Amino acid sequence: MVSYLKLKLLAAAVSVSACTLPTDPSSNNITTGFGIQVQNPAAPIVHNRYMNLWSAGGGDQHLYLSPAGDAAFNLTLDNGVISRGIIHAVINGEYTADDNTTKLFMTERGDPKAYFQPVYGCNPDTDAVQLELDFISRAALPGGFICVRSASGDRHEFRYSPPGNTAVREDRPCYEVTLAVVQAPAA
Description:
Elements: H1 2-16, E1 30-39, E2 49-55, E3 61-65, E4 70-71, E5 75-78, E6 81-84, E7 87-91, E8 102-107, E9 114-122, E10 129-138, E11 141-142, E12 145-151, E13 155-161, E14 175-176, E15 178-182
Antiparallel strand pairs: 1-2, 1-5, 1-15, 2-3, 2-4, 3-8, 5-6, 6-7, 7-8, 8-13, 9-10, 10-11, 12-13, 12-14
């Protein structure tokens, strides 16, 4: 009986660690169009939803989780910055003191750019190797993370939380998320 239990535990451990990450470094440029799937299994309300763009006037695009906004599977990564044509991801505006976060959105203006580094990770649901965008910095300020929180009208918006941020709103948490690079889902 003990041998059978050990065998089952070993099989479970092998299946848990089946994701073997490539060792070759990835470029900080992705020229083929992609989308972003948000992952955080501990937060089912945001887990496995896609990042969409919402026209905000003046050419800006605000970032919301699907189904709000328009699907965005034609993004590129240009020297670590998420881009779509002439607009790029920035962190600025709509700062909120109660959770110490700032809006992440896309614009062609010169706001502080959001920099990412592609890294390999493991899909939390399938254990498959995936490419992820690891947040690096807000312009020259390193650290912090990208999170998603509720917004008006049953939408969820993308935010930046700075290094060492301890501010939390229990009624409106900003969930730290993994940004997985994905192709458009099959219709």
